[in-house]
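Troubleshooting entry. Yesterday's outputs looked truncated, so today I'm pasting the complete records for two proteins to confirm everything comes through intact. If either block looks cut off, that's the bug. Protein one:
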Amino acid sequence: MSTEEHPTPDRTPDPAPQGTAPRSLAEALRARDDASLSALLRTRPDLITPVPTDLTQLATRAGTRASVVRALERLDRFALQTAEALAVASDPAARDELLALLAGDDNDPAVTAAFPHALGTLREQALVWGPDDRLRLVRTARELLAPSPQHPSPTGLGPTVAEATAGMSPGRIQEIVAEAGLPTTHDSVSAVASLTALFTDRSRMSALLDTAPAEAVDVLSRLVWGPPYGQVTADPARHLRWLIDRGLLLPTAPGTVVLPREVALHLRAGRAHRVTEPVAPAVEAARTHRPQVVDSAAAGQAYTALATVEELLKDWHEGGPAVLRAGGLSVRDLKRTAVALDVAEPIAAFWVELAYAAGLLASDGEADERYAATPAYDEWLERPAAERWATLTSAWLAATRTAGLIGGRDTKDRTLSALGPGLDRSAAPEVRHRVLALLATLPEGAAATPDSVLAHLQWERPLRGDRSAAEDLRARLARWTLSESELLGVTGRGALSAQGRALLGLPSASARESGARAPSGPGDKLPAHKHHRPAVEAPLSETPRSPAEQAAAVAHAARLLAPLLPEPLDHVLLQADLTAVAPGPLERPLADTLGVLADVESKGGATVYRFTPGSVRRALDAGRSASDLHAFLAAHSRTPVPQPLAYLIDDVARRHGHLRIGAASAYVRCDDDALLSEILADKRSQGLRLRRLAPTVLAALADPAALLEGLRSMGFAPAAESAEGDVLITRAHAHRTPPRSAPVPVPDGPPVPDATLLGAAVRAIRAGDLASTTPRKDTQAPAPGNSELPRTSSAETLATMQAAVMTGEAVWIGYVNAEGAASQRVIAPIRVEGGFVTAYDHTADEVRTYPLHRVTGVAELADDQP
């Protein structure tokens, strides 16, 4: 159900047993059924960590400060306003009184419609208890909603007339009653009641204010919405004296007056809040595109995302940047990565963090610790493109590490670095899901305005008090989600794509009706999508999906994306300017070989590769021969191999390996002594410190790698050789980390329990409550200071147990376990033998065996108990 919709009845009625109102929250919980208790534990999972022993302990835990704070922070704005109104109502308050504080004198229909849902939410979460005529707010919630001890009203209302006049002399009260035009009474109580009745009577109060000076009305208007306190001098002005004499301002301390609550509510037209917000702000559409345009744009972004992650890890193929001592990536290395990916630094940080979250990137853990791809990356590369995208997207949705924080400062004023500590924000997954869910409320193809999304999120989680930092974080998380979802292809042109809806478990008409493949070349076209109805307004269920359901949603999203991704190509187009054009993604063997033989010159819809002497030499160094390269190009080119390219390969191959370099420190040998003489005569070789050892051998003081680089820079094409004189084939060495698992998200509190855990917890709480509240027959009175556990002798314990086996009745026992912890239990004995009693334990809801010597005592249950 959408947050804008509200059912008419309360979700969790709180009936009182036998027609009487519960006297405590524990009694109110005891009157609930199992479904209502399960709903409470589902919405407040911290209450079953660990499982309470009985309902009294559950009620106590539900009233603790930490638990109530968490519950209040998860209320939407109107539910919070309902709790605030109950905090300023009488205690206990009637349902109609609470509704009047929210709807006002004009009985706002929107408030009236939303009120049952809000009150039901507060009851379900055990923040409010009691029947409709005696509603009570949990005391801890009342304290937490107060802005400060000096101003306890969360809505800016002052104390009631009765509270403000509690310390006033009877004579002064009678003077106020007389000035207000009321008859004097014989006691202060009736006088205060008469004054209160005047202030709560709309017609008489309006008549009184019609006679007030204009300056007095202006003073009231400044105090009406709070704070309700003001300062006055010992000799107040005439208009202030008029207000004080009639009790419209009451003194609370020397020089301080307060606006009574009844007067403020009259001036507010009965409302507790200046603006009551029963309905969430609507998510507005900024623009609308055809669904097929959105899906195509999102698929293009998805393909770019895969290519970017591959390029990142290819750049770190032989070992990436070093790990900082404090952990993370240095600013310089992040800049280098951004240049290599041709993106801005914040975008590069996002891709680095995404690869890390997906388990494709980690530190190698060696002495000279560096970042590198994990073995999972090689497995990831072998999977279909749509499945690779699903891996990235599911990791992004669940990750608590937040790339947008990189470059900022932590609480100790230290810079937050990519892949470093301090980037986890437990609210990130929830915000991502909510942003996508809000986009799903719009018709397919519609992009939302960011401001309307932020306004809706703020209504759903209206953080209270001085929480500007947390509120700003949620807003920034929402904005980052909008941009990151576009980068990943979850959205296209700002609108949720078909695969994005599938990730949320929503059906998509456009996805069902389109089974076309995305264009793989300039001439291909996608079929038009049909028009379809808007998406439903309930984007996500409040019940979290199981891992199996989430995996099914991700797999479905991948299936929807697969036809929209371009098919890998097995060919390129060779051109006369020593370039090759790949009109789409290439099959992996072709892409890998071409990446060695040529340099990438430009990317985009088509990738342009350029052949250079250096790139051809790189392929020859990798063990390819000239004939291999000619055959490769001829087999994978849709155009004839240009003559300049063939000449380039032959020329580099002819000179490749003519010079041989080995370790002396290093030497150069060549059968052509004229060529060695040419090298010695070249002034550029002076830094290599060469000298002739033989007509065909030169020795150098430089190491072999420096000698290779130096001669190549002079235009020669030397080849390295082994100690046996064989040519060394140099291939890129793939550096991989040991097996690494993806980082575990930091949870935002206890996880929401599943149905199995909820059922077991409710049974355990019920059984424990039965053991602690069931009446028992009188036993020997315990000595003063002893525990309340039953105390019987060993013979009495054995006899009572044997009798219970024969009659099939349940008994109450005291039991001390091996650790010395005492407890009380209700059991139904089944068998007594060998010093043990086997019984069905109602507390644990299972059959257990207890040593009789650990049973401190036994008592029969009262006759009126089952």
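Protein two, checking that the full record survives here as well:
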Amino acid sequence: MKTRLYTLIAVYLLIVGKTIAQHSYKMQPAVLQTRWAKEVTALHNHDAYPRPQLMRTNWINLNGLWDYAIVHKGEQPKENFGGRILVPYPIESALSGVQKSLLPDQELWYKRKVLKPKSKTGDRVLLHFGAVDWQATVFVNGKEVVKHEGGYTAFTVDITSELKAGSNELKVKVFDPTDAGIQPHGKQTLNPANIYYTPSSGIWQTVWMEVVQKNYIESLTITPDIDKKLVSVIVHSHVNGTVKLKTDNCIIAGKANTVINVPVKDMKLWSPENPHLYDLTVILGKDQVKSYFGMRKIGVAKDIKGISRICLNNKPYYNLGTLDQGFWPDGLYSAPTDAALKFDVEAIKAMGFNTIRKHIKVEPARWYYYADKLGILVWQDMVNPDQQLRPGAKVEFEKESKEIVNQLHNYPSITTWVLFNEEWGAYDQARMTNWLKISDPTRLVNGHSGGILYVNNQKAKGADTSYVNADITDIHSYPNPMISLNQNNKAMVCGEFGGIGVSVTGHEWNDITGWGYVQVLPKDLESRYDHMIKKLYQLKEQGLSGSIYTQPFDVEGEENGLITYDREIAKVPLTRLKEINSQLIRTAPYHLSTTIGNTNNIQTDVQYQTLLDKFNQNPNQDSTFLRGLTIMALHKKDQENLTKIGNAYIDKLKYPDIDQNAVFISQITRTSKDKGFQLFSKSDNPQRQNFAVNILMSEILSKLDNETNLAILDTVAQKVTEKYGKIGERASAHAIAGFAWNKQNWPLFVKYKNIIYKKFDADVNGLNINNDSWTIFLKSVDKFELESALNWQKIVLGREQYKDGGSIDTYANILYKLGRKEEAIEWENKAIATSEDPELKKTLEKMKAGQPTW
């Protein structure tokens, strides 16, 4: 009876917990949102079994709401953690429900309760992580069970011995310094701009548990051989037991951990035109997994003209590809849902491409499954090493690259490994290329994509030695494609070209600073793209084997995608793209099940007056219209209308203070009459406050420029302070101090600098203070002014990050000018001890001799 009661209570708590969880999750505001984001809930996000090539039926999805905490590195989080995060979305993403940055001196902690799964005696419970960026330490009931480094690879730990009956506590500690660390981090950066993007820290792929037999299948190595009409399979296990392989009405027996050759009769070859997959069942004792494989071969061989070309299944096969970065506006590294993950492969195939270059990122296993199933070749980049090659970076890159190659071995869609990209951290080219070739001789190795780079036909960098030991020579050329070097027995490809930027109003991450190698209007993209495909046709005749267009989707500030970042608008209709691509290759018809829009209604600057008239007749327009018209007014330098339209746009914003909206508002805010100024002047965010201060300062200085009655300045400061409060006081103090410096009025300068450094800690900057103090040292003989400068320097010397030889030297010189010679000499010796500047020793000798140092 008690057992039944406990079961009922557990079920009740589970139901209540699910209800609470659903209501406690809320996606954070995002500048752009994909259609799939609205389907994401705390209970349903990535629900599909995450590993299609090693599937079991008995698994427990641990995606959902976890507790989280961000703490200083080395500290422990508080017991209640203090927040909730939706797994598996990076903490910086809107879909995580958090949208906070993880800094290099911080750690991110996760915590959740898990029930011990129902199991039989001898069964094992495995805990799996699809990917955690970057360093993950896992604890079960307080005991560390595994530590894994590598932000792109899966890892598994047996937690059977640490589990107790009922509820158990699972914790994960994450350290991710992004581009401040030695680890491969792809295009993630702490300061996103241009071709570098927002970080994706923490758990960003599915977490799950599964119960397995005592003797279980750990992994599979599947290698097709179409020439011998067989597939080789290695069943990896901790025991060398008998295994059975079932495929296509064929059953083969063998031993675990040895090669088992399975004949494939009436072989159906895998290709993008016919992506046939064979089902595979593997049995070891009572353990059984489902898998699949495809029969294909990739290589380089000479055509009838003696040109080395990429061949698929022993026939020349042009690789017409696009550069896919795998970022999402709402999920960053994580697609919102499994359907979204599939969409990207579908969309690229619908455009008429047969190849995807997966650019310095590794996707979840299900992405490669869709590439296998739908039929598209994949060039898989290694995730580039730390570009500064700090100590330890090479070792970490080689370790993680080895894991990537092993993890992705079985996918027939992957035909090419790309080792380095555009000299980003490249080293030991010959050795590393050879290592990759030996690691997987069944695929092509592109040792250096873009080792030679051209921009507008000008060679930017690179050397012929980039391609030693590789199967391919590969140059990058923006915007128009070029053919790469012709080297013996190597195929020639153009690994990147294009980069044509097109802004689509209402579908931009940042509509003022959007970036592309070339910026054109939407109507021009189609003709430019058609011209480039015609050029590729000519290069193909000369021996080009493949080309990669940049890129299928916009990514943050990069607006050179064929489809917008939110996957809503095709800048050229997909059917038209497929038609253009068909000039180069023939692909089977493929139609998207999801409808996306086109660019017929794009606003342009040419329409400015017409759209302005529409606004003046009815200011209550939607936010997309208003944002586009605001940008036009900015381009036209029409300040009066910019203020009017910009204010109307800000009124429409539901979340004006989120970072992406705030950046835009700051770029259209010019005066204190603008609502952006009002928004920022009341913000608690220091950066927003600084922006408001700068605007007000500019306005005050414009009024003071020709002022000759200095007595009026205090009145100006008083009135501005009364009107704007602390923001006004700070702005007027800076403005008048700047005015006084220009007029060489040092008493006035010191008066207002004293106000700034006494009242506004946000303005305490070591370099600025040192410059102010040094100016007074050189220009003034007044005791009060010099003592004020000395006090400013004390602020600098009291903060370790500002203390250096130059700051100490300034302090010593002011002491000396005040007549405090012994103290000055003592401090000048300290300056010499912390700096190699030879001028400091000369200053010291002058002080000892009683000579002026100014």
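Both blocks look complete. Sanity check on protein two: The mean pLDDT is 91.
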